[in-house]
Amino acid sequence: MIAAQLKAMLETIVPPDGSAADGVRDRWDSLTKPPHSLGKLEDVITRLGGIQRSHFPEIGRRTALCFAGDHGVVAEGVSPSKQVVTAEMVQNFVNGGAAISVLCRSCHCSLKVVNTGMVHDVDHPSVIQMPIARGTANMRRRPAMSEEQMYRALDIGFSLARKEIEEGAQLLVTGEMGVGNTTAASAIYAAVTGMDPEEITGMGAGLPESRVAHKAEVIRESLNLHRPDPSSPRDVLCAVGGFELAAMCGVMLAGAVFSCAVVVDGFIAGASAVLSMLFHPGVRDYLIFSHSSGEAGFDEVCRRFSIDPLVDLNMKLGEGTGAVMILPLLDCALDCYREMATFDEAGVTEIEI
Predict the structure, then answer these.
(1) What pLDDT shows up at residue 339?
(2) What 3-state DSSP class applies to 108?
(3) How far apart are alpha carbons 255 and 143 in whole angstroms?
(4) How many CA atoms lie within 13 A of 75 on its CB side?
(5) What's residue 321's pLDDT?
């Protein structure tokens, strides 16, 4: 994928079908309950109706696309884990022992694990091998990615999402694995919002609190070095992003292009979501923000971008776990929408407004 190709694809994005959404809303109002008494669950099913252009949306076929990549900035001591942990956890994913693996089984969600650029190899037939490099460059010293690498990473996510949609996926979930990627995500948020890195930088995967200030300073120095244009997702990704972050962004862009809802996980996937909306504001209509991350500053990011996550479980694991966790909520909401009786069917006097 090159810039011109991406631009052409994004120009095909159209808003969800308002008429279909109105039809879903009308059915909700006809069911035996007070108006809007199921709150956000009514809203998200109404949005799904508009996205799928159907009065009866479905999410029976869903896929979690989990992208793995390493970050050169780990050399600056911003993570308590060594880069080999990225590969070890990917092995755990495909062996079925990680949280995302368990949740995908429990929630009947297909899991696809993609190597976008790890330092260490994982030789397993279930890992989709699409490495760009053995990790990004150290953002504190030079841009994390070249423009060519950035577009390759976008294309990985875009192409895999397109394939899943063409094969019948009705809902996509984004997930990630990469030691150091909370540093990259924090840098993205700081770049696009102008927030001080100290406001948005947390402990990530168990960094001692005494080292968080150093992590924030690494981000500050990286942004001062590159000075990416905050309105340019291309600039920001190249300066401080990650291969897996760009790939998730590509999934979200594909969801908007091909009219498929994408469920966004928390802090790290949220950074990709913010960038996807900068690529094209229409992408927002196709994103479902699953949960409010327990990572530092995420509530402020949500406020600034008018993001309203469905739940707040104080989760900050990543992997896509928070996004998969809300799938049963969506299933329950759809069951209510499909199976509840209308006032006429139940012989209940309708509420007068």
Answers:
(1) 98
(2) coil
(3) 28
(4) 13
(5) 97
Secondary structure class of 259 (helix, strand, coil): coil
pLDDT at residue 1, rounded to an integer: 67
pLDDT of the residue at 205: 73
- Phi, psi values for residue 306, rounded to 5°: 50, 45
Segments of the chain with pLDDT less than 70: 1, 353
Contact in structure between 159 and 251 (CB atoms under 8 Å): no
Contact 96, 124 (CB under 8 A): no
Q: What local confidence, expressed as pLDDT, does residue 110 receive?
A: 98
- 0.85 exceeded by the pTM? yes
Q: Which residues neighbour 164 within 8 Å (Cβ) at sequence distance 6 or greater?
A: 63, 65, 112, 172
Q: Name the amino acid, one letter, at 40.
A: K
pLDDT given at position 353: 63
Q: Is 190 exposed, middle or buried (0-12, 13-18, 19+ CB in 10 A)?
A: buried
- Structure-block tokens of residue 12: 């095909």
Provide the pairing of β-strand 261-264 with 171-177: parallel
∠ CA 250-308-187, nearest 5°, is: 50
Distance between CA atoms of 44 and 173, rounded to whole angstroms?
Answer: 15
Q: State the pLDDT at residue 226.
A: 98
Task: Single out the catalytic residue among 164, 244, 295, 319.
Answer: 319
Active site (annotated) includes residue 319: yes
Q: Show the beta-strand stretches assigned E in the chain.
A: 62-69, 110-117, 127-129, 171-177, 261-264, 287-289
Q: How many residues does the chain have?
A: 353
- How many beta carbons lie within 10 A of that of residue 151, not counting itself? 22
Q: CA 352 from chain center: how many Å?
A: 41
Nearest to 201 by CA among 328, 272, 296: 296
Region for 39 from its dihedrals, namely left if φ exceeds 0, alpha if ψ lies in -120 to 50, beta otherwise: left
**What is the bridge-based pairing of β-strands 287-289 and 261-264?**
parallel
